[in-house]
Specification:
Length: 425
């Protein structure tokens, strides 16, 4: 079995994820399509303190682009469709047959006990959409559900119940709310007529897709990409190894075997820099992120403010292939400011270089979001250097913040323990 260093594995992973190429001068639809085809899944999330998470992976790889292009690809061109995959995701329309077996069993609803009265109501929701046209959850029954249904209204529950197996599809979004219609009025007849894969065949192709997108991966990594059970991935990767479509490899510091995507003979030369969404494909698997980058990462959306370690909406900042900093970002649209609410340097990262690189990315992000300036708050060990680098058009507002209560520092070698990740879709 071949062996590679962790640094080589990182470069392979970055290239597979689309960070090995220079950013285009003016990203267009073709670059957007190539990114989608490479990643296979774009996670959708509702958190909008900066920008909705599904727009960020394209900015991270392509630089400033017109966000309307993603909406065009999803709801006008139908290059992608919405469905449950890793989580709620945009998925290439070409992969509709790949998810059909999941849709047919209702995916997330499969193990819920649902009474006859509620099932009858869900059926009436589908018939109402079929007869009256597209619907949003807020247009139906406003009653809230009982405990255990996420506080959804009865109408939202009914629409989602019919969406999961593909009877309803997302036709559009209005103010981010899903607009549902029957699938036959959303998708081309050829899409719905295409036969789905048998489950084993679907899992095999999902593993192929995941390995291509990750470059180098363990069985657990591959299982996480489409949220397949590890026990269902292991026999499929064995088949791919036998067919020469995956190659076992030992990676320095990784436990157990990993696998290389076909055609990878060496680690490419990569020097990647990007601000990353918490839901970016590169870092959404927290265990893999820690193994690959030595970066312990948890989001703190629902952690009480006084218990947050790094901030509410923390984006990892990658510079020269390492995760070098964490920045808590907010788009204050009323003030037309990109606010850096905290900036923390990772241990061992060069402070001056990281601040210089991060400054460039923040300026690009501010322009992309149509914001006039960057404001840096005095929180975090990187904040003073970062603030010092801004000037001119990007005026710094170095605001005085109320200091949080003092906390006992973590002993050397111990990680902080922010709350577990919570994704809202």
């Amino acid at each position: 079995m071949d062996s590679i260093s962790n640094a080589e594995a990182r470069r392979i992973a970055l290239a597979a994820q689309g960070f090995g190429e220079p950013r285009p001068r003016r990203p267009g639809l073709e670059e957007m399509r190539r990114t989608i085809d490479r990643l296979k899944l774009i996670q959708i999330d509702s958190v909008n303190v900066l920008v909705r998470a599904h727009y960020l992976p394209f900015f991270s790889r392509l630089g400033p682009y017109r966000r309307e292009m993603l909406d065009d690809l999803a709801y006008r061109e139908r290059y992608v469709f919405e469905q449950w995959a890793h989580e709620a995701c945009f998925v290439p329309m070409a992969d509709y047959p790949l998810l059909r077996h999941r849709m047919e069993r209702g995916h997330r609803w499969g193990r819920r006990a649902i009474g006859a009265e509620r099932l009858a109501y869900f059926a009436s929701v589908l018939e109402k959409v079929r007869q009256e046209g597209p619907a949003q959850a807020g247009e139906g029954d406003g009653k809230r559900s009982s405990h255990g249904w996420g506080g959804w209204s009865q109408a939202k529950m009914g629409l989602e119940y019919q969406f999961a197996p593909g009877r309803l599809a997302v036709k559009d979004r209005r103010n981010f709310a899903r607009v549902y219609d029957v699938a036959e009025r959303v998708f081309e007849p050829s899409v719905l007529a295409a036969p789905g894969h048998r489950e084993e065949d679907a899992h095999r192709q999902m593993v192929v897709n995941a390995l291509d997108a990750l470059g180098v991966a363990t069985v657990n990594d591959l299982a996480d990409y489409y949220r397949i059970l590890v026990g269902e991935v292991a026999p499929r990767i064995a088949e791919l190894v036998s067919a020469g479509l995956a190659r076992p490899v030992a990676v320095e510091g990784w436990k157990g075997r990993a696998f290389l995507a076909p055609g990878i003979d060496r680690a490419p030369e990569v020097s990647a820099r990007a601000l990353l969404s918490p839901f970016d494909n590169l870092v959404w698997d927290r265990a893999r992120t820690e193994r690959l980058f030595g970066f312990y990462y948890r989001i703190e959306f629902y952690t009480p403010p006084e218990k947050r370690v790094y901030g509410y909406n923390v984006l990892p900042f990658m510079d020269d292939n390492r995760l070098a900093a964490r920045v808590d970002l907010k788009a204050n649209r009323q003030a037309s400011a990109l606010q850096v609410q905290a900036a923390h340097l990772e241990p061992g990262a060069p402070a001056a270089k990281t601040a210089a690189s991060l400054t460039s990315e923040l300026k690009a992000m501010a322009k992309w979001l149509g914001l006039e300036r960057v404001e840096v708050a005095p929180k975090g060990d990187l904040a003073p250097r970062l603030a010092a680098r801004f000037g001119g058009e990007y005026a710094v507002c170095f605001r005085a913040l109320k200091r949080p209560a003092q906390r006992t520092p973590n002993p050397p070698g111990r990680h902080p323990s922010p709350a577990d990740d919570v994704s809202v879709s």
